[in-house]
Amino acid sequence: MNQERLMQVLLAPQISEKATYVAEKHEQVIFRVVSDATKPEIKAAVELLFKVDVESVQVSNVKGKVKRFRGAVGRRKSWKKAYVCLKSGQEINFVDGGNA
Predict the structure, then answer these.
(1) I need a surface site. Which of 32, 69, 70, 94 has the fewest CB within 10 A?
(2) pTM more than 0.70
(3) Neighbours of 9 (CB within 10 A)
(4) How far apart are CA 36 and CA 52, in angstroms?
């Protein structure tokens, strides 16, 4: 795969109460990814950037919410979320710059 493309696949880690719970219980990390990313691309990007072994990847499309402002109806962008399952004994620590 193109290494330049892999550097652009991951947008940001998804930090939330649910993401923290999933990380502790299932050894998974949740990322926000570009909307046209595939599972093999996400796996390769995480392995390249964080130097960890990925067991599996699950992908979810999140629909943008409808919001109203002064009577005008707008919609937030839809986005894609990736649940990355790491092999046992491995973790990604975002506080220390990525490597565990």
Answers:
(1) 70
(2) yes
(3) 22
(4) 23
Q: Say if residues 45 and 32 touch (Cβ distance below 8 Å).
A: no
Report yes or no: 3 and 43 within 8 Å, Cβ to Cβ: no
Contact yes or no for 2/83 (Cβ under 8 A): no
What is the DSSP-derived secondary structure letter of residue 54? E
Residues 3-86: name the CATH superfamily: RRM (RNA recognition motif) domain (3.30.70.330)
Instruction: Name the phi and psi angles at 58, rounded to 5.
Output: -120, 140
CA distances from 5 to 10, 33, 48 (A): 10, 12, 12
Per-residue pLDDT of the chain (100 residues), as tens digits, is: 788 888 999 999 998 898 888 888 888 899 999 999 999 999 999 999 999 999 999 999 999 999 999 999 999 999 999 999 998 888 787 766 556 5
Between CA 77 and CA 97 the distance in angstroms is: 29
How many residues does the structure list for the chain? 100
